[in-house]
User: What shape does this take?
Amino acid sequence: MDKINKLSNTTKERIKNELKGFIISQGHSIDSISKLISETYNRSESLQNLSQKLSRGSIKYSEVIELVEVLGHKIEFKKV
Assistant: This one.
């Protein structure tokens, strides 16, 4: 695998913590979100698959957009 595609463990942990924190703050669990994504986008998103993507930090940006939108939010970028 190309070095450019590898994420540091710190980055993987940050992805996992930020997305899980967001899901929980919205009153959901990984299980309920995986079901909601499956129903909304008419595709299979199993609990195990979503959990593994979060743990590995391998979730795609398009999947993050779906996750956020299914909860009625959108992603915005702001300069810090």
